[in-house]
């Protein structure tokens, strides 16, 4: 009888551990891989180190916690991050991957896809689809708890990710693998116009940023990614079938947030007391719109470069 304990003992004493573990995973359908989720740490990291993103903090904490509570989830967790560059989308996706596995983002079970690297040519969509399906299927056979991160979805040739539709839905067994424990994160700037407009209107109306609700943005983002030809989800069945668990908006950042980014990075470099540099970095960013100059046009993206300039 294969039990988790016997696998651990084998792993401890035997150099052929890997082979046994793989066999165990295949047979038992309950393989943990290197899966050591720490929701508390994820929540803490999100609240402490992500600035100005109350929606992302709430949605990611809640959805991940809910998903991991279920021993046999009915469908995978599918999150789609949207917002302008420098607002923290990649940071949050790294935190998510980083608090799920023992070896964090270098875990072999966190898979990152970058269109310009993996899927650069629009005329090779058919090839890419076959490749992507083979990869995801292979990765899920190795570890049902795999995480797939698709960066720069605005540069993904339309049609490629549609091949994942059967993996994302609530169907029971597809291609004879349990794929419902997987986590997918899609990242794009698509939808930034509507997010930035709603945030600006909210500000002009004198309301708190934290009063912005997901319900004000969710449908508009879904429609925009579906309608926009510069979107990996252009006319995608994944959107039509409503297979995205949640759209996660990242709001444009103010000078206050940029300065918090600068302070935190300075501290990491051992320069916590350099308020002058914080101030200089905040003052050197460009802000929009012309009337009001409320939001940093590059979020926190240029902060490390500016710190080097002023330190
Ligand atoms: C898993 O996905 C990666 C791409 O991230 C691919 O290179 C690799 O071959 C896949 N593994 C399996 C077992 O299919
Ligand atoms: C998307 O397209 C549909 C149908 O053409 C239209 O009704 C809707 O307003 C569009 N939405 C956006 C946000 O462009």
UniProtKB/TrEMBL annotation:
<dbReference type="GO" id="GO:0005524">
    <property type="term" value="F:ATP binding"/>
</dbReference>
<feature type="domain" description="Torsin-1A C-terminal">
    <location>
        <begin position="257"/>
        <end position="308"/>
    </location>
</feature>
<protein>
    <recommendedName>
        <fullName>Torsin family 2 member A</fullName>
    </recommendedName>
</protein>
<keyword id="KW-0547">Nucleotide-binding</keyword>
<dbReference type="InterPro" id="IPR049337">
    <property type="entry name" value="TOR1A_C"/>
</dbReference>
<keyword id="KW-0732">Signal</keyword>
<dbReference type="InterPro" id="IPR010448">
    <property type="entry name" value="Torsin"/>
</dbReference>
<keyword id="KW-0256">Endoplasmic reticulum</keyword>
<keyword id="KW-0067">ATP-binding</keyword>
<comment type="similarity">
    <text>Belongs to the ClpA/ClpB family. Torsin subfamily.</text>
</comment>
<keyword id="KW-0325">Glycoprotein</keyword>
<dbReference type="GO" id="GO:0005788">
    <property type="term" value="C:endoplasmic reticulum lumen"/>
</dbReference>
<dbReference type="InterPro" id="IPR027417">
    <property type="entry name" value="P-loop_NTPase"/>
</dbReference>
<dbReference type="Pfam" id="PF06309">
    <property type="entry name" value="Torsin"/>
</dbReference>
<dbReference type="Pfam" id="PF21376">
    <property type="entry name" value="TOR1A_C"/>
</dbReference>
<dbReference type="GO" id="GO:0005635">
    <property type="term" value="C:nuclear envelope"/>
</dbReference>
<feature type="signal peptide">
    <location>
        <begin position="1"/>
        <end position="18"/>
    </location>
</feature>
<dbReference type="GO" id="GO:0016887">
    <property type="term" value="F:ATP hydrolysis activity"/>
</dbReference>
